[in-house]
Write a structure and sequence with these properties.
Elements (H helix, E strand, L loop, with lengths): L8 H5 L9 E2 L8 H10 L8 H11 L4 H5 L16 H9 L6 E5 L18 H7 L12 H6 L2 H10 L8 H11 L3 E6 L5 H4 L7 E3 L2 E8 L5 E3 H9 L13 E5 L4 E2 L7 H7 L2 E5 L21 E5 L5 H4 L5 E5 L2 H12 L2 H21 L1
Protein name: Sirtuin 3
Keywords: Metal-binding, NAD, Transferase, Zinc
GO molecular function: histone deacetylase activity, NAD-dependent; metal ion binding; NAD+ binding
Amino acid sequence: MWKEGESSLAAIRASRHSSMAFCATPSAASAFPRAWLILNRTGFGQRSFCPAEGAAALLRRSNSPWWDGTRGLFSHGGGAADKQQTLQDIAKNIREKQHKRVVVMAGAGISTPSGIPDFRSPGSGLYDNLQQYDLPYAEAIFEIGFFHRNPNPFFALAKELYPGNYQPNLTHHFVRLLHKKGQLLRMYTQNIDGLERLAGIPPEMLVEAHGTFATATCTVCLRKYEGEDLRPDVMSGTVPKCPTCKGVVKPDIVFFGEELPRHFFKYVTDFPLADLLIIMGTSLEVEPFASLAGAVRSSVPRLLINRDLVGPFAWGRRPHDVVQLGDVVGGVQALVDALGWTQELDALMAAAAAKKAATKTEE
């Protein structure tokens, strides 16, 4: 069923199929082929799986050189003296750089304040535009088999969402500031809108779990393209074709039935090393992304900034978990205020706006 009011991209995946991994196993060339086998055998994504122990198993059983350096990090930590932390505690520890390896997880909820349209709500322009294609169900737009038969619905969506149509908001710029201060280990995002890159977060600091519009691949000859190469066709409503073989050129968005992007497996080393996990704007329903919320050590604080309680915050909170419910931008602003970073963030956002204005003038 299509649910009214759910945000566009991650919500599409949070469906009756969401209990199944939406991707196939990575190719034999993957940097972590054995790790994936272990994921399947240990039931990654199942609620009974302990991700901290699973991450340790991944490192140990894949003979990773990281194991020797990180084995001490997998303690369940915490003692009788543990007390419930607050947003102010998190802010104090970030400000004093006790948290220097921060991992951020983000979903569609950080992009809707930028105006990214609601895919599912009847009456929205995007929803109405797609009705002419008579989709059998919402998820079909991201199913690779359906795409091969009829790429038009996806490219109608791509025209609306293509990078450059929308601008990052305070939430994206906060993560950029965290990187600027040298405290961001990595940002894991479910979004394909490219707003993280547009905010100035370097690609190497991003894991775009559901893919990206920044690059594209011919579905026939596998020739690679820059995402901008497709812009003229996408904006004109034309399905982009490879000049070499005339195959359809598909942005490197991960569809149901496709492989996870190889860089997703950076989590194997990132999450055991993290000393703070910030989760923003996600339902934590889509696997395997959702299970990453449990992949940090249990002694590591987790901060949820979200409209609702989700995932482990709803059914198994830890003493170090902190929850800031409500509007995501408002929650991030509360954290920024507690950090004393308001002026710095305002300056960063003003500089980004000035740069955009200058670029527009040049055009």
